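FAQ
Q: What does a multi-component entry look like?
A: The components come first, one per line:
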Amino acid sequence: MKTLDIPQESNFKERVVAMAVPKFKQNASKLFGLLTVALFLAASMASQAHAADVVTTYKDENGWKLQVNGQDFYAKGVVWSYSPRGQNYSYNLWAESDDHIRKVLDYDMGLLKAANVNSIRSFAMIPPKWVTYIYREHGIMFVVNPLMGRYGYMIGGQWVPFTDYSDPLTRATLKADMLEIVNRYKDTPGVLMFAFGNESNYGLSWSSFEIENLPEGEQNTAKARYLYSLFNEVIKDGKQIAPHVPFTIVNGDIQYIDLIAELMPDLDILGSNVYRGSSFTSLWKDVDEKLDLPVIFFEFGSDAFNARDYREDQVSQAKLLKAQWQEMYNKAYGNGEEGNSIGGYVFEWRDEWWKYLQEENLDTQDNNASWSNQAYLFDWAEGQNNMNEEWFGIAALGKQNADGVWTARPRMAYDVLGEIWGMDPYLNKKAAFNQGINNINMEFLELKGEVRQLKSENEEEKGKLSFTGGRVQGELVLRGSDESVRVDGENGIDFSDGQMLFLDFEFQPVQELEGQFSLNILGNVADKRPLEFTYGDRGLPITGFTVGELDGNQFIRETELSTGERVEIYDFEATYQGENFDITGFYHTPRFHWGYEGDFFGLVAEATDIYGMDIWNAKAPEGIEIQGKNKWKNLRLLMGPEVYWGANPKFIVKYDFDFGKFDVTFIHSEDVARSGEGASATQATERQSRQTTLFAEREFGDGWKIELGGIMAATEKVDDIYTRVDGSGNIILDQVDHEDTMGFKAKLTMPLFGTETYVQAHHAGLVADGGQVHKVFGINDPSRLPYSGLGNKREYEAGMIMNFGNLMVFPRLMYRDNLIDANPFIEASIGPGGVLNPGITPRDRDSDPFAVLGNREARSAEVVFKWDPTGASEFYRWDNDWREDAKFAFDFGANYTEYPTFTDANLFFLEPLGVNASFGQGLPAEDVWTLSSRMVFNPKQGRKYITRVVRGFDQSTGNPEGGTRDYWQFHWKALFGGKHTFEGYFMKDAWGPYDFYRQFNVTYPEQVKLDYSILLGGNTGSFVSAVGENEATRIGIRALYRSGDDDSDLNPLIDGDYVFMTVLYLTYQF
Amino acid sequence: MKNQSRHINRPTAKQFTLVALVLSLFAIGGCEGPSDGEGQQINAIVLPTDTLLNLACADAGIGFELCILGDPENPFAQVATPEFNVNNPDAATKFELANNIPAGPTGAKARFYLWATALARFPSGENQWYTARALHELYDANSDTLIQEQALRAYRSVLDNFWGSVTFFTCCGGVSFSVNLNEQTADDLYRTDSTGFVRLIPGDPLNAQALMAQWGYTYRPATPPDYNDGLVTINGG
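Then the predicted structure of the entire assembly, as tokens:
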């Protein structure tokens, strides 16, 4: 845009945004200018097919104004979002059905319009058609606000979490993408302006050696220069595309205002997020003097929670907002002050319950204050946090209405602002609007807000116990085999039916304590085994063997001994938020590992697969976590009977501290008993043990990072005896010593040749066992490298993430040796004269202090190719099935692993006796390989296809009998019409779908699953999240088929050549 | 800030230092495997031939006690004592070892260690009864009252802990037959000819019946010629 400077002597200055017209002559007359503007507006409007609005800024001696189609427009609005309970930032309203979107918008915009809102800002990119809908139906305009890499960006095919605005490729990518957005929205009716970033000046987190070498105070300034120069490039070019609307940025306060003045000559408006309390203090004057631009606030306001009194505080919020808007009105055009205020957007419209922790407690509103701001005196105290992220709404998040829309319960601020926004600062004289604002009946509005709050609380019945919903599931099952049908005809097909009810409750007996729990109630339980194991199988009859007698002869008969509990607590979580500690009790609710918090050896395993645990009716994770706050914030304590799935009863203490330039973490884990039963049906229990780790990490900048860790584990095993075979074939009796408890691990990450490259070494003594290994991409990392947390190894790993546009190529290598090899089987014998040759047998982890199992000697190489044009929807995120939004994304991986030696013996849990049992022999040496690929197609909205193919040659994880398997798997899932799902699999010579099949090396020639379901309504109009899919109201039918052969005969239920099952199912959500 | 043209990933001294540090840590990492000469070679263990038994703990060879596995005098502590495997019936079992221990008093102590080890690893009536028999044999050889007492406790454990257990004998051309171990235990206590050893309960065989009565069992002695019709019942059972 070129600024149209009218001669100073005329005392008239106007900026018409981005007019692609020749320069006006410096001495053009006022009349000529006005006529030209009018002509341009007319021409501009006529030329735009969709009649986009012309938005301009205007300035004269009285200050600045924003004008829409020539009419004064003081921006009065909120930062708008729609986040249902139970959802977080990943929720995408625009993926819902049009009908549902319309209901949401009509509800929200209706309330906003009633409060005299004329425009909104949103972090979400509202699709153009809905921008127009909101504008035409409700008269509310929209600020298009792409975040421009603020929270990471896809650069050259790689997701970069901290955007480096100095990087040429990053700048080119961001610029091209921003201009594409401008192009997409430029003709959309309802667009008020384009704003870029969001407090991007606070996110200058990238590092490079060049900038690191500068004095600390200059480092961020150097980075900021890159940021603002890029902003200006985007704006300058953007105006060529959309000359009829203003361009601005969303700055954090007015930091770097001098740089903005220097580097952003094309900026039309200063957009800013300001949290200075009840007054904006000197901001107006500073901007006036240094930028001479109008000011619009994209965020400001106050939370509605009093962290000191620990209660909702509508009054303080309303008073603060009232003072802020009164000041803004006074600073508007024509009031004899700076005159540069043109409006603002209160943060925010409605509370969002995901803001604190972001992935957890999504069904409850956290009261945790997560940062401190002294400007908010009503609840500020020295050394205490007072800003409650989940309470910033001028409306609280209510319950769902009959349309499935999450309602808003307006707070006092809504009413106060409604009255203020009803006054036009341009039409009313200064004295008039000040009188109007001062005369607002705050007592009445306080009462009104409190009545709403009380009514809402009565509805929610918080303070006691409230019922929040639930679901009913029902199923009809037909199951049989070819043999049963051949022998018994139709009577050979079993019929069973099942019903299940979930009831969800919340409670908050006192403000500091809140929580939720669900009950599960069984009716009949359909028997789907062995084809499916499902939650609720606990209600199936438990059978045993008893001795019967007939005609004087005894015989063994199978007898129904009992049935499981029909009612049980499904999950439970409660949090007490104290002054210095938060205490959370959890039972069967998902919990994450601590790998990103200094747990270098994986002592705390991830426990998020609740559905997987449900199959075995496991109740993990179960325990208590105490998280320190304030001066105790570095301390964390976790304890309980099973803090992650398969854990022994234990406590874990973690303490973080700085040592020089290193971030250091100390963790001690101590088992206090041994678990009485295995996780899943057959996973062996582990001996009671202990581990202590120390981890230090330092990031050097420009992608260099070093991580160093040491572990001391299983000290209780010192002096334990074990046997081995030496190089000469002698049998040696040896003992564990202190050195065998120690391990060391180091990882160096570096940008070798412009890639993310890492090398890692892990030396671990015989019993220096860690826990779960954290892969580069987390639990969904497709890597088949033979990771193991066990000790007794020298392990080296290297990988290199290379990006070529949207294609990622990621080769990885692993080399591992054992300090002591697995034991062979040599039979014991007694020779003449009573000389015992003791022989030797494979070790196991119960009878021996250690065993060579998953940590066996290995040489492994693999490469993964990934194509994903939309990096924000990470391909390996656990919920990528729902989040992936690329038209086409895929990966392909190939792994080849050589196991040159055999292993010791694996254990399994023998449930009837409640003890571990050994397979007796180890897995043989073998070379194995796997090819796999996952593809996601999004041909159009409401339609998605996902496939996964695996071809492999691999070993069992326990029983060596049956040998190595050569198998195929093909899985698919198709979503169409927003409500239809067709999914299934075909597997050839593969293990069954549950872990124990591989543990016992049970495979089937063919396995087929076909499942079709249709969504019947409920919360959402389509499957937009994992929760939405698993708990939606739906009806469907599923068919399974499995053939058997000699490798399948371990399963006694397979009688004949094949088994089959059909399930008709219904889930009703309420 | 430096010229942008230098924004190239050229290793600096700091980076070289980092790499060198990590590589050196890898090199000196420790956690070496045992070298030759470490540990004790146990290719050939001479089984004890004496009859002096030092019990590793008070309950050694009784019930579910595991201390025998840590007994430094136990030659079988690290030796597999495989049970019969129905899936692999031809595999060697503990009986192969037992059969090769020298017969007579010189093998009694080794027999005790073998069966007590098997018992600790797999608590069964069979392993308990053989342990009791070995103790009985040792008492026969050394007349040690402590061993006498331990043998009685081992026999009693067959009744208390493994009631209903059986073992299999083979005779007469490979024919297997099962023996009810509670009856065999009572017979061993009641009848000298059953074991060939001195009585654990001196005097009249009625004393054995009386002791078993104290333990809570009633024994109706087996009768000649086959002595296979004895009956043990649980008092009040």
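Q: Is there any commentary attached?
A: Sometimes. For this entry: The two ends of chain B are 93 Å apart (CA to CA).
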